[in-house]
Specification:
Blueprint: H1 2-23, E1 27-33, H2 41-48, E2 52-56, E3 66-71, E4 74-80, E5 84-89, E6 98-105, E7 113-120, E8 126-132, E9 137-144, E10 167-172, E11 175-183, E12 194-202, E13 214-221, E14 224-229, E15 232-243, E16 246-254, E17 259-263, E18 268-269, E19 273-279, E20 282-293, E21 299-305, E22 315-318, E23 325-345, E24 354-361, H3 366-370, E25 376-381, E26 387-410, E27 412-413, E28 419-420, E29 424-428, E30 437-440, E31 443-445, E32 448-449, E33 451-457, H4 504-529
Antiparallel strand pairs: 1-20, 2-5, 3-4, 4-20, 5-19, 6-13, 6-20, 7-10, 7-19, 8-9, 10-11, 11-12, 13-14, 14-15, 15-16, 16-17, 16-18, 21-33, 22-29, 23-26, 23-30, 23-33, 24-25, 24-26, 27-28, 29-32, 30-31
Length: 530
């Protein structure tokens, strides 16, 4: 009997190990940074600058505000306001599904402090209106809101938020603040039309960001961000519904999956820029690791201009109604396009303009292509005059030929409230090295557009299917199934907040089946012996 028990345990352990191994998801390292290898601050700056935007707001030498410090047997990076404002990862492409981990420490619990932001903005965003306390009205305003500056949003929990867009975490000693930036109508509590939804959660017992570097791990998969501190799940953020540059819907849930805050006016960038942001505080970071889920990690190849960079713009073209501007672009094998940009798009200083951007798979010719189904559609609403119009794709556009179309333009309103303006694209000379073909209102154009796109490389080569695969014809009608499939015994079970699959049921069945099989063999053996 003892041998039987030993055999059963061996089978259970073996099956469990195999199942856990099969459950492990492929991850590909994008970047690892421990800071230990740098001899001094200057070497750290030179090497880190290859992948990170390191912003020295005081315009002084870098080591005055970004410093290597001793951390046990290694080193960590200390960021100090006012010089150290941002450390954003700009030299690597971050896919939609990824995992990041790092250690962080800060003593600050004021409205300021250290932040880790995801789906944030690298470029300076602008707002066109603000709330005027003197007149108690909304007035025209042209100003940038960097993601390290106070956002003008106050509520009973906190005096002001920081930044313009994204999802963020902020250490608060023995708590963690998890927040989502929102778009609001300018008011006394949202001066610049920027708001926040927030959730403050207690850390595991005895943990304190002010006394030690704590391990933070964040997974962002299937539009669910899960936040862990020392491997304890604290909260999740679920997001979706693309509109313009942003995901608009978001909900924060506690570790048990209960919704604690939600919004349909989120400002979560489709572009997945992430990094550390600082205001009025000191932040220490260490052991940064970033992984892509999957067997490969696309790499940034560079920006491809559709225009002659040595020439001047040749004119402009507005879009109203069914007027259109389109360009056919060929994407080579192993490449992909992550974003498309109309540079310096104008609106004649009007707000609330609109246009729709489509991407169609190319099919033989222009007209035939437009009868197909677009693989991407986005409405560009209220574009800021003369700013780049960057369209980020949540799923990169891989190998093939495509038609990028801007149409369905609508006028907006001027500063006096009168109808006016429209989306306007600059015309330019063609880039002689580009194979792109341009169209205006369906006709081939000799003008290029003042536009470019971001190219990725490193994709696996596509498997080419035969054009006319031969399928053997059945010699007779297939037999009817011998048994009707049984109805499910229960409804679908929702995935846990982390968005990760739960293969517990399958594992349990496999183990029990193994045990039953062993017991059966044992029973049969005993009967034989008798």
């Amino acid at each position: 009997m003892r041998k039987l028990v030993s055999l059963i345990l061996t089978i259970i352990i073996s099956v469990s190990v195999l199942s856990v191994v099969s459950m492990a998801e492929d991850k590909t390292l994008i970047l690892s940074e421990s800071f230990d290898q740098y001899a001094d601050n200057n070497e750290a700056y030179n090497e880190l600058s290859k992948n990170w935007l390191l912003e020295d707001g005081a315009n002084t030498s870098w080591p005055d505000y970004f410093n290597l410090i001793e951390n046990g047997n290694g080193k960590a990076l200390s960021m100090t306001w006012v010089g150290a404002r941002r450390m954003l990862l700009t030299g690597k492409y971050i896919p939609s599904d990824y995992e990041v981990s790092f250690k962080m420490k800060t003593e600050y619990t004021t409205p300021n402090g250290g932040f880790f932001s995801m789906h944030t903005m690298v470029d300076l965003p602008y707002v066109t209106q603000k709330w005027d306390d003197a007149t108690q009205t909304i007035v025209p305003f042209w100003g940038g809101i960097p993601n390290y500056e106070a956002d003008g949003h106050s509520d009973p929990l906190i005096a002001n938020g920081v930044g313009y867009a994204g999802v963020y975490i902020k250490p608060e000693r023995n708590k963690l603040e998890i927040g989502v930036k929102t778009a609001e109508i300018p008011s006394a509590t949202a001066k610049y039309g920027i708001g926040n939804i927030r959730y403050f959660v207690d850390l595991p017992d005895g943990k304190d960001f002010g006394t030690e570097l704590l391990q933070v791990r964040i997974t962002d998969k299937d539009n669910i961000i899960s936040v862990y501190v020392d491997d304890t799940l604290l909260a999740t953020v679920t997001y979706g519904n693309i509109s313009g540059l942003f995901y608009k819907n978001a909900s924060i849930k506690d570790a048990n999956g209960n919704v604690v805050a939600s919004t349909e006016n989120a400002r979560i960038c489709i572009a997945n820029d992430l990094g550390f942001v600082l205001r009025g505080a000191i932040l220490v970071v260490d052991d940064f690791d970033l992984y892509a889920y999957g067997t490969f990690a696309p790499a940034l190849s560079g920006t491809v201009p559709l225009y002659n960079t040595q020439a001047e713009k040749t004119g402009l073209k507005g879009i109203l109604g069914d007027e259109s501007m389109a360009v056919k672009i060929d994407v080579a094998s192993k490449n992909a396009i992550s974003s498309f940009t109309y540079k310096g798009m104008a609106t004649y200083a009007c707000t609330n303009t609109e246009a729709t951007f489509y991407v169609y798979p190319w099919n033989n010719d222009y007209q035939t292509t437009l009868t197909g189904t677009p693989i991407y559609t986005n409405v560009i609403y209220n574009h800021i005059n003369n700013m780049d119009c960057v369209i980020n794709f949540d799923t990169p556009i891989t190998e093939g030929s495509y038609l990028f179309v801007l149409t369905n333009g609508k006028a907006g309103i001027d500063e006096n409230g009168a109808a006016g303006g429209q989306p306007v694209v600059w015309l330019h000379e063609k880039n002689a090295e580009s194979t792109a073909q341009f169209y205006i209102n369906g006709e081939i154009s000799e003008n290029a557009f003042y536009a470019d796109y971001e190219l990725l490389t490193g994709y696996p080569e596509k498997v080419v299917e035969p054009e006319n695969p031969t399928t053997p014809s059945p010699t007779e009608k297939p037999a009817d199934p011998t048994q009707k499939p049984s109805d499910p015994t229960q409804g679908p079970v929702e995935n846990p907040p982390t968005g990760e699959a739960m293969p517990v049921f399958g594992l349990t069945v496999l183990v029990l089946t193994s045990v039953v099989a062993v017991l059966y063999i044992f029973s049969k053996t005993k009967r034989t012996e008798q």
